[in-house]
Specification:
This protein is mainly α and about 230 residues long. It folds into three domains: about 110 residues, no CATH class; about 50 residues, Arc Repressor Mutant, subunit A (Orthogonal Bundle); about 50 residues, Orthogonal Bundle (Arc Repressor Mutant, subunit A), CATH 1.10.10.60. The protein is built from ten helices and four strands; from the N terminus they run E-E-E-H-E-H-H-H-H-H-H-H-H-H. A two-stranded antiparallel ribbon has the order 1-3. It is globular, with a radius of gyration of 21 Å.
């Protein structure tokens, strides 16, 4: 590894899941021999940290963020593993990856600033804002909804909105959206003869495989089996 044109170092992880962090603007040159180990690279947008800075109990001093090679942090390793699992599973949902990315940012800030840094307490969405968001979800159930899009409907930052939504509904936004999509799909399967491929598209799933996987997890039977049993 070589940071900002400095002296190159050969660094080997002494344990699984060791991490390397490089702040924005720092040039890191890395050569990873494939036979030795595999690596995952997560690139975070500055927007993630701008949103976070307005929602935490103490100021974030980004000057304290410095390159760090091969360190161990079980919480960050678990979050990275969860993000990679979402991608490797082929069922990437931005509403699940975005909160994981934010949680990773929180863990990283705590790593440099200490555990005293905590998110500000989240309240509930007002009845009017909550109804606007829920109505929007119903009207756009077939669309690939994003956290930023729904947060704008709720007039809050994405980070604050996701926590307020969970307090208001008793479940996370991604969980709620999946339930509504599955319920719409179940009704179409039972009450219409629309093809399963078209139902998947009409309820916001990226592809048939993702639809079948999510539907089976929620309902306990595959879409095809439910249709046969309802015929």
């Amino acid at each position: 590894m070589q940071i900002d044109g400095g002296r190159a170092e050969r660094v080997k992880p002494s344990a699984p899941h060791h991490l390397t962090f490089t702040p924005a603007g720092v040039d890191l040159h890395t050569i990873i021999p494939q036979a030795e180990f595999t690596a995952a690279q997560i690139l975070q947008s500055p927007e993630t940290y701008r949103d976070l800075a307005a929602e935490v109990s103490s100021p974030i001093d980004f000057a304290d963020f410095e390159p760090k090679l091969m360190f161990n942090d079980p919480q960050m390793a678990a979050l990275i593993h969860a993000i990679v699992s979402e991608i490797d599973g082929g069922f990437v949902d931005h509403l699940s990856v975005r909160p994981l990315n934010t949680a990773l940012a929180v863990a990283l800030v705590r790593h440099f600033h200490g555990s005293a840094m905590r998110p500000l307490a989240a309240g509930r969405l007002s009845g009017e804002r909550l109804r606007r968001v829920l109505d929007y979800i119903e009207d756009h159930i077939e669309d690939s909804l994003s956290l930023s899009e729904l947060a704008a409907i709720g007039c809050l930052s994405p980070f604050h909105f996701s926590r307020c939504f969970k307090r208001s509904m008793g479940m996370g936004l991604q969980r709620y959206l999946i339930r509504r999509r599955i319920e719409h799909a179940r009704r179409l399967i039972v009450e219409t003869d629309i093809s399963l491929t078209d139902i998947a598209a009409a309820t916001g799933f990226d592809n048939q495989a993702s639809f079948t996987y999510r539907f089976g997890r929620e309902i306990g039977v595959s879409p095809g089996r439910l249709r046969r049993e309802s015929a």
